[in-house]
């Protein structure tokens, strides 16, 4: 049964990978004792696809004066895009391997029959929480990239040594399946990750990221990524043959009456947040809130407008983690031409002091973030034009 599952999945997503690679990859010895795969059966969907990167994906443009001279084009494959967007072979390798993991997670999410968070796949041979399986696949992808030094996930909030180099290597933090509690309702869910150079995930800021990305598992499967030194935020679509194709570039988040209000229970004892929500309703904004952070933030990038908020109050504390969720999505939104805020500053400027640090957040267009900051705190660091309302 297990072998038939692997072969079917390989035919669907990893053409050219033979069934002899269908056994699970063994977890690195360096992973801490608190992290165990004992409850996880073999998942088998990597094999040589992660060990051998096509030569074309490692070709790097010759760049003079550090300026990129080749423009990435709609229709490019992920590998073509990355070789044009960055000269860093290690980063190309890592992002390509993560793309392999996202592709496999998408298959697993779409073929899981779920009750709550306990899932059995369509072949009946895996009784796993799908978020734990996603967690395992991402750790394996980072191990076989050979360029990840440390990794840390929301499921395993401790640094895991992935065996990569410190010099020229990266550290990665990820939320394996944001929205896993709504998988059983068939809502869109996703993966979030941020990439930092070297071996540190604390004492750094979101602005120090060299790349950030999310995988979105909905009617379409997409891989949305941004590179620190390359303009725009870029969407890749998973095609039937298993390849990622560049389908959209976002460089500007404009104005538009679309809002996604998270943590509405905070309006009970945060009158300023209540005032902001009432403004959206009074001004006839369109409500587009799914209960999943990935699809709600992704729609701002795709629609190129809107506002996402998740605000705290005395009785409703912050739940969103700066390292695993807020900072990576902040880079994606800001590279797309939008803004982020914790009420007083960009979330990319917040120092990550510990792995579990949490914060409130808003993402959106400039005027929406001005309105958010003014309404909650009376002034905005971005203010430079006419009043945007709600603060009065």
UniProtKB/TrEMBL annotation:
Domain of life: Eukaryota
CDD domains: FBPase
Coiled-coil intervals, chain numbering: none
Entry cofactors: Mg(2+)
InterPro entries: FBPase_C_dom (IPR044015), FBPase_class-1 (IPR000146), FBPase_N (IPR033391), Fructose_bisphosphatase_AS (IPR020548), SBPase (IPR023079)
Fructose-1-6-bisphosphatase class I N-terminal domain span: 69-249
GO MF annotation terms: fructose 1,6-bisphosphate 1-phosphatase activity; metal ion binding; sedoheptulose-bisphosphatase activity
Pfam families reported in the protein's UniProt record: FBPase (PF00316), FBPase_C (PF18913)
Pathway assigned to this chain's UniProt record: Carbohydrate biosynthesis; Calvin cycle
GO-annotated biological processes: fructose 1,6-bisphosphate metabolic process; fructose 6-phosphate metabolic process; fructose metabolic process; gluconeogenesis; reductive pentose-phosphate cycle; sucrose biosynthetic process
Alphabetic keyword roster: Carbohydrate metabolism, Hydrolase, Magnesium, Metal-binding
Stretches assigned to the Fructose-1-6-bisphosphatase class 1 C-terminal domain: 255-375
CC per GO annotation: chloroplast
Entry's family note: Belongs to the FBPase class 1 family.
Protein name from the UniProt record: Sedoheptulose-1,7-bisphosphatase, chloroplastic-like
């Amino acid at each position: 049964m297990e072998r038939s599952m692997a072969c079917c999945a390989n035919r669907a997503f990893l053409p050219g990978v033979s069934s002899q690679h269908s056994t699970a990859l063994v977890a690195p010895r360096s992973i801490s004792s608190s992290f165990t795969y004992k409850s996880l059966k073999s998942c088998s969907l990597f094999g040589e696809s992660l060990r051998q990167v096509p030569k074309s994906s490692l070709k790097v443009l010759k760049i003079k004066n550090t300026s990129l001279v080749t423009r990435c084009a709609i229709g490019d494959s992920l590998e073509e895009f990355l070789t044009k967007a960055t000269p860093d072979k290690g980063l190309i390798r890592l992002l390509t391997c993560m793309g392999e993991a996202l592709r496999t997670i998408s298959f697993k999410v779409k073929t899981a029959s779920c009750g709550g968070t306990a899932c059995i796949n369509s072949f009946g041979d895996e009784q796993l929480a799908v978020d734990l399986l996603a967690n395992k696949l991402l750790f394996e992808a980072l191990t076989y990239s050979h360029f990840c030094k440390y990794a840390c996930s929301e499921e395993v909030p401790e640094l895991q040594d992935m065996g990569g180099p410190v010099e020229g290597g990266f550290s990665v933090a990820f939320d394996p399946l944001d929205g896993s509690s709504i998988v059983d309702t068939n809502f869109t869910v996703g993966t979030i990750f941020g990439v930092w150079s070297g071996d540190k995930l604390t004492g750094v800021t979101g602005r120090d990221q060299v790349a950030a990305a999310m995988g979105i598992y909905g009617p379409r499967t997409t891989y949305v990524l941004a590179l620190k030194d390359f303009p725009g935020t870029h969407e890749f679509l998973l095609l039937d043959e298993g390849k990622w194709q560049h389908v959209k570039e976002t460089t500007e988040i404009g104005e538009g009456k679309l809002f996604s209000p998270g943590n509405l229970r905070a309006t009970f004892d945060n009158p300023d947040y209540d005032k902001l929500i009432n403004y959206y309703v009074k001004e006839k904004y369109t409500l587009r809130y799914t209960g999943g952070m990935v699809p709600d933030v992704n729609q701002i990038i795709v629609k190129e407008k809107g506002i996402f908020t998740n605000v705290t109050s005395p009785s409703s504390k912050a739940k969103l983690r700066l390292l695993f969720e807020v900072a990576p999505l902040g880079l994606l939104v800001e590279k797309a031409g939008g803004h982020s805020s914790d009420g007083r500053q960009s979330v990319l400027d917040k120092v990550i002091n510990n792995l579990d640090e949490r914060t409130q957040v808003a993402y959106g267009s400039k005027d929406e973030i001005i309105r958010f900051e003014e309404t909650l705190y009376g002034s905005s660091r971005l203010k430079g034009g006419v009043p945007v309302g709600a603060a009065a």
